[in-house]
Design goal:
- The chain has 7 helices and 5 strands.
- The protein is of the alpha+beta class and about 230 residues long.
- Strands 1, 2, 3, 4 and 5 form a 5-stranded antiparallel sheet that branches.
- It is elongated, with a radius of gyration of 25 Å.
């Protein structure tokens, strides 16, 4: 038989268990997974405004972001040297768009770069159409169409984006243009319709350098930047 002390201890144990359960919760198999930066990128693609990536030179909700330091030596620290053509171009853009933040822009450009490369490999025209200018889109779409006519497929996977440096910035008739040099590591392979590798290596990481230019009309209410020019870098 249980004595009175055993019953009391059992009751206390049950109370403690119920208290811990209410505080810590319990696993049900339906918990939200840990934060994944790539899932955040996919969420942007599935958002309103036809999955356009908002390069944060202006914030997505048009709320001004923190201003850059006023001191010329610190204003573009880590982005451009004081007095350089890049710094002068960024100054001109910032004067017209008070919410412009270069570091936020670079972060958004990195996201857009990865999305565009992967969308091109997958033949995802919808994503490309909303991230590229008309001329650039037509070039990408033509290459995809030719690839599809041959039954070829491309597989691409990012290993890392090692660098993303602003190499040019200017304002022309209220149209801001910023050029970014990306240095990345990528695994990419092209297969024919039989599945044979005709270009690239599925086991080899390739070093890739691209120089891309993004543009936005500062007189427009549209806060989005689009890719307007691409070239292979050295």
């Amino acid at each position: 038989m249980f004595d009175i002390y055993t019953i009391i201890f059992l009751a206390l144990a049950i109370l403690i268990f119920l208290k811990l359960r209410s505080v810590l919760g319990q696993r049900t198999g339906r918990e939200r997974p840990p934060y994944d930066p790539y899932s955040a990128r996919d969420a942007v693609r599935g958002a309103t405004n036809d999955n356009v990536v908002r390069l944060p030179g202006r914030s997505a909700d048009s709320t001004p972001v923190a201003a850059e330091p006023a001191d010329a030596a610190e204003r573009w620290k880590g982005i451009a040297e004081p007095g350089s053509s890049v710094a002068n171009g960024l100054d001109a853009i910032a004067r017209e768009d008070k919410s412009f933040n270069a570091k936020h822009f670079v972060s958004g450009a990195r996201t857009a770069y990865e999305m565009i490369v992967l969308a091109y490999a997958q033949g995802d025209r919808r994503t490309l159409r909303n991230l590229l200018s008309r001329d650039v889109y037509e070039g990408f779409e033509a290459a995809i169409r030719e690839r599809e006519s041959k039954g070829e497929t491309v597989e691409s996977r990012f290993v890392a984006i090692e660098k993303s440096d602003i190499t040019g910035a200017e304002l022309r008739n209220r149209v801001a243009q910023i050029t970014v040099r990306f240095v990345s590591q990528l695994i990419s392979v092209t297969r024919d319709k039989a599945g044979n590798v005709i270009d690239g290596n599925p086991e080899k990481v390739a070093d890739v350098t691209d120089v891309w230019t993004f543009a936005r009309d500062l007189s427009s209410r549209d806060p989005n930047w689009k890719l307007v020019a691409t070239e292979a870098g050295q």
